[in-house]
Design a protein that fits this description.
alpha+beta; Jelly Rolls
Length: 238
């Protein structure tokens, strides 16, 4: 397990985010890209039907039930390059809430505005966003306001234009980059002005709360969770 350095710990506490360049690379990255593209294509028709029926938005879509589609989506949950930091920051009491395997279509306006995901009274809530393809500036890259995870920060207001957010930082990156952030902080997907869909995977974690995730939620993938560590991560033992 790769634990964060003192410098990384300080940045996490003060800024609320860490960037892991080349977090996934080599054959693992190729496998992730191939599997992502396969299932995104397989699920696209269903998504378009839902868009036509007014049941889904046209600006992004997620592969449904990704953990059941291929073991690579399970393997990245506790991937070594960032898993040690997740465990360190949650005092080794981490649970998975769920993944979002997401394609963001080129669109002049982002599908979401600046926001935090949870309040300051919520148990530590962490997301890891993994770029599956290269994300250039203006290509729907992740944006975050450093320090906005702190209770004494702000106040913040959602601006009309993404780039007008006070004190924000954007994170273009190459395929395999992972961005970990405290979900109390204000963040966004920037507008995608390119002609390339942004492909990313958003992994959602939290410091364990009793009863937060029932043992049945991930029962369908229990065959891939044989170690005590994985069973705890996926809340398979209650």
């Amino acid at each position: 397990m790769i634990l964060p350095t003192p410098k990384e710990k300080n940045q996490w506490e003060e800024e609320g985010y860490l960037v892991f360049e080349n977090a996934i690379q080599g054959e693992d990255l190729k496998r992730l890209q191939t599997t992502f593209d396969y299932w995104a294509d397989e699920c696209k028709a269903e998504w378009l039907d839902r868009v036509e029926a007014g049941e889904a938005v046209a600006t992004f879509y997620d592969i449904p039930n990704p953990l059941e589609k291929d073991p690579i989506f399970i393997d990245i949950i506790d991937y070594p390059s960032y898993y040690g930091a997740l465990m360190e920051f949650t005092n080794h009491d981490l649970i998975l809430l769920g993944p979002q395997v997401r394609t963001v279509a080129p669109w002049p306006v982002s599908y979401t505005g600046w926001h935090p995901d949870v309040g300051y009274d919520n148990p530590l809530h962490i997301k890891v966003q993994i770029y599956v393809n290269d994300v250039e500036p203006g290509g729907g890259e992740f944006g975050f306001v450093p320090g906005s995870h702190k209770p004494d920060s702000g106040p913040y207001a959602r601006p009309m234009r993404q780039e007008s957010m006070t004190g924000h930082k954007t994170f273009p990156g190459t395929a395999g980059t992972a961005i970990m952030f405290n979900s109390c902080g204000w963040h966004v997907s920037m507008d995608n002005h390119s002609d390339i869909p942004r492909k990313s995977i958003i992994l959602i974690y939290e410091k364990r709360t009793p009863g937060r995730i029932g043992p049945g939620q991930y029962a369908s993938i229990s065959e891939y969770c044989q170690t005590p560590e994985r069973r705890k991560l996926f809340s398979l033992d209650g």
